[in-house]
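Reviewers asked in the last cycle whether our approach scales beyond single polypeptides. To address this, we selected a multi-component target totalling 915 residues and predicted its structure end to end. The input consisted of the following lines:
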Amino acid sequence: MTPEKLLEIANGVVQSAASNEQIEVACSHGRSTSVKAYDGEVESMTSAESMGLGVRVLIDGKQGFASAGSLDPDVVADTFAQARSNAAFSEPDEHVGIAEPDGVDAVDIDLWSDEVDATSSETKVQMALDIEKRVRTGHDKIVGVRTASYGDSTASFALASTSGIAASTRASSAGVSVQALAQHGESTQTGFGYDSARKLSDLSLDDVVTDAISRSVDLLGAKKPDSAKVDLVLEPRMVATVYGLIASTLSGDRILKGRSPFVGRVGQKVASEHISLIDDPTDHRSLAADSHDGEGLACRRNPLITDGVLNGYLHDSYTGRRSGEGSTGSAVRGVRGLPSPGVQALAVAPGSGSLAELIGDVELGLYVFNLAGLHSGVNPVSGDFSVGVEGRMVRDGELAEPVAECTIGSTLQRLLLDVSAVGGEVTYLASGVTAPPVVISGISLAGA
Amino acid sequence: MLTHEDVLTTLNSALGAGAEFAEVFAEDVQRTGVSLDDGRIESISSSRDRGVGIRVIDSDAIGFAHSSDLSGPGLVSTATSAADAAKASGANQKQRSSKDLSLTEVDVKVAPVEIRPEEIGKQQKVELLQAAEQAARSIDPSITQVSAGYNDRRRNVLIANSDGVYARDDQTKTMFSISCVATGDTGLQTGRETVGISGGFELFDRVNVEELAQQAAHRALTKLEARPAPSGSLPVVIGPGSGGVLFHEACGHGLEADLVRKGASAFAGRIGEQVASPLVTLIDDGTMSGEWGQFGVDDEGNLPARNVLIENGILVDYMWDAIRARKEGRPSSGNGRRQSYRHLPMVRMTNTYLAAGDSSPADIISSVDHGVYVARLGGGQVNTASGDFVFGMVEAYMIEDGKISTPLRDGQLVGNGPKVLQQIEAVGNDFEMGPPGTCGKDGQGVPVGDGVPTLKVAELTIGGTAS
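The resulting structure, written as structure tokens, was:
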């Protein structure tokens, strides 16, 4: 379905609003293909069509929501009725409501390529087979490939509301991922490589293959290290993970509910002067770039931390009204869920020096390959941080022995304040995050 | 959902010129959710999701297609897409003589639901959360934030395949959770309680949400007094219930036949070997009445079973889905599950638990001079290939001279699954199931249960923040 057709469906519901009702309707339609390869053969191929609908109704400050996985007229009508009924049982809140247009113009970003639809199934199958074979045969320590896959999607979205918002867009994406199994003696390790882009021809297949192989092979023989204080060297993927977690504690929702270590800290120094964080969905080079947020407001560039000083928080229309700070165009949602304020396209600003130069300056450190247990080991309320880690020790400026079965402990606050260096080259990651490598000093590594 | 006629026509379209196997999985899920946060009912939401996933297998190639279109022509179109996908992935399409399909209904024991959640008014669900919130806040003014959630889900499934299987199940799950934040001199601490059953609103005849809310509040308050957890290797005693997640992660995943086959398991090729301390008997049981991982039929039309995986330390069997079982010429163990009609099934756990032993919990604790008692384990993660795992300690205490002492702040437990299994030194006689869980694998989440009695591990690495 075209974005225009979706907007017509959304507007159809909006027009049936009663005079005391605010209504917001989001809908989507998409097609996707995925291919999994294993041991030289195609394991499965999936082809799918999916639809989504989310209806938000507000009556006298009371909010109800309903969603469905179909756009059939009877389902649309029933979903609207459910949302109305849900609103009746809710409790009123003066700040709750749909977004009001705020005059900010949306950037013009093209998220679409015809290439995804125009490419044959055979070519897509071949991509999965190729990447599996290249990893499987790419190194004598690689004994297999656990998963290798190609996937793509094309989708249209539309959002309309009684406040006059009517936005629609379409987006395409393609990606590959592969997980290598390396073995040497008693040691088995896995390494993951992936990339994603708006079209197939932008995928960096060589990097994906190299990543999967080196991340598994370089960990072979990993042992439990002795406990020590180390400098942590984070490459861009790990920077995205760690600073993504930190940025999520700056959402207006967490702040207003007191569930963040950064409540009331605007204008204060919360990080090393090396650190600047920006949430910038208007940067078209990020794969998370977008013209509109989840409530149909224009996306904008939001500095979060500049040279170590906290600038502000991320708001959707609700937290924007409640805090008096206004929406920052940061409503994040799936069509089938309610919007809430969140990070869209995080960027960590570059400093200077290459990754090799950063490692060269470290006396005793840990170069991190993987972090494990982030959902249980990070407390976003208190900031306590204790996670499993795998990687290679850094000794006198050189990568040394691989380590596993150990944890690093710190707090989200210290992971900002104790940054000692930020690299000069940024990577535009498949996750949409833009990041350089970062070194954090004085982290406790717990092992034997 | 689909008529018998629809199912036959769809299977025939999917088989096309003569694929080996075709399967229709139709699903209709209705959910209701109420959430309370920050002193008010924040949202009431409903959702409806129905659709069909069609799988075609031929010469080891799988074609899969799914759609929300359940009309006659829609089903045929999805079946054709699945057949085309199988072809694109290299199916031989040998000419096979088409056979007349006849379907036999599987005798599925649909779990009883005493009180259907959809027959309970929304107001009653709202009041449940409000009562819980008030109970938590009334404990102590240090409780500064409370959030609570109620969710119910009814999932009707229909599975039919070209082997003649025709199975239907009607699965209802009901869940309640509460989370409290306590504020003190040491900052913010959280306490959480979750309960859920494969069943209906009778859950609230069995548990009192106000008591549960007060327990969550007490957990948060206790942690205000907590000191940072130590770092390094120590003996660890794990309390009954939530420690089941350790076995789910540390060895359950490694016993899934698909991972075993891909060499991504530390337990591959070890059937009949002593893989654990003789105190360890590990069972996966999808039939456990009322438990979170229970169902009447798995998502491939096979009945669930009580499967002994490890008996007195000896590896007995892996868990199987239909595809892996078919390849090995053995029956499925009823572990073929999927998140929704949009997903292909794979080997998944159901309710996984360590069977009770003989020791008294008090004796186990008093056997430790200096160690850690973990009353509650949180979520975890495992690398099935190496067996290395990480878990969060949600509630833990020091053990000094055989006695539980100071509470500890959150920290991680790190270890290696196969090693830990060998290092289990005592298993208690106080078995309990833990809170309801969601297990993630290859991007799919399914409801699971797990449980353990009190147990002692000779040594685990604690990753605390104490300096």
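The mean pLDDT of chain B is 93. We regard this as preliminary and will revisit it once experimental data from Aim 1 are available.
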